[in-house]
Amino acid sequence: MAELLSGTEVSRSLDERTAKKAEMLRRRGVVPKLVIVRCGENPSDLSYERGAMKRAEALGVRTHRIVLGDQATKEELLQVIRELNADTGVHGVLLFRPLPKHLAAFESGICNALDPEKDVDSMTDISHAGVYENREIGFPPCTPEAVIKILDHYGIEPAGSRVAVIGRSLVVGKPVAMMLMARHATVTVCHTRTADVPGITREADIVVSSAGVLRSLTREHVREGQVIIDVSINWDPSKKDGRGGIAGDADFEEVEKVVKAITPVPGGVGAVTTSVLIEHVVRAAAKTVRE
Q1: 29-115 and 142-270 share one CATH topology?
Q2: Distances from the Cα of 219 to the Cα of 187, 193, 210, angstroms
């Protein structure tokens, strides 16, 4: 029976520290503020938005949402970003992506229009550079940092470990691979063209799965003694007596019987991701305080 690496426990610890930092800033006259920019009414965006705003307010961070229609133009979105860049009372900006299809070709330019100092979820090339060069420029993406915080909380040391990362997206796979290498892990990134993924993952000490495919991480992929970090959030229609519910990539009942430790879904990486976002906003606000 594997140890469950509860993200809820990690999140609670992180939130306590973030709330204290936010209170210290308020005493100095700075109230951290997060603005969420959304185009359209994507249900997953709405769910994350509600959770983020509730968590932020509970930790002493002001929030505001700007909602544009799903037919918003490039110029309308850029104008919003320019106004947020100029607003000294705004410390963090979260733009939900992917953008509507008609804006997809402009997404890079739109993201890079944001001031990197307010880029709390690594939208800009400058923030990406910070991750890839292991320098404190901007902020790393929240989900990969949540993975690192879970490992740290439970005393799981990446240094010297073999790590298999499943998925190569800019949102999770590539940045988490770079962040783990910065911690001196030896990392193999697997993707849809990788031959013998199960053979690679069985050799790893830590497996980070971000494929986004329900039950794609099976008993065949794992061995005893491993740590499994299941990043993905998928819809499983078989859960809750056929009513459906969220699940990760792992075939949890089978994998959990074999490995040493595993994050649950829900209650794993996702729980920490929101806490990391709010922490980034508070850190961004702290940078504006003159000593």
Answers
A1: yes
A2: 21, 21, 17
> Which of 150, 147, 131, 148 has its CA nearest to residue 139?
131
Strand ranges of the sheet holding 33-39, from the earlier edge strand across to the other edge:
62-68, 33-39, 92-95
pLDDT band at 242 (very low <50, low <70, confident <90, very high): confident
Locate the domains of the chain by residue range: 29-115, 142-270
Distance separating alpha carbons of residues 64 and 66, to the nearest angstrom? 7
Comparing CA positions, the residue from 230, 122, 227 lying closest to residue 178 is: 122
The reported pLDDT for the residue numbered 1 is 85
Q: For residue 13, how many other CB atoms are within 10 A of its CB?
A: 14
pLDDT at 244: 84
- Domain covering 29-115: architecture: 3-Layer(aba) Sandwich (3.40)
Section 28-35 average pLDDT:
97
DSSP 8-class letter at 156: -
The pLDDT tens digits for 257-270 are 999 999 999 999 99
CB 59 within 8 A of CB 16: no
What does the CA dihedral 55, 115, 95, 144 come to, rounded to 10 degrees? -70
What's the whole-model pTM score?
A: 0.94
**Alpha carbon distances (Å) from 43 to 38, 49, 210:** 11, 10, 20
Give the mean pLDDT of the chain. Answer: 95
What fold characterizes domain 142-270? Rossmann fold (3.40.50)
Q: How far apart (Å, rounded) are the C-alpha atoms in residues 100 and 185?
A: 37
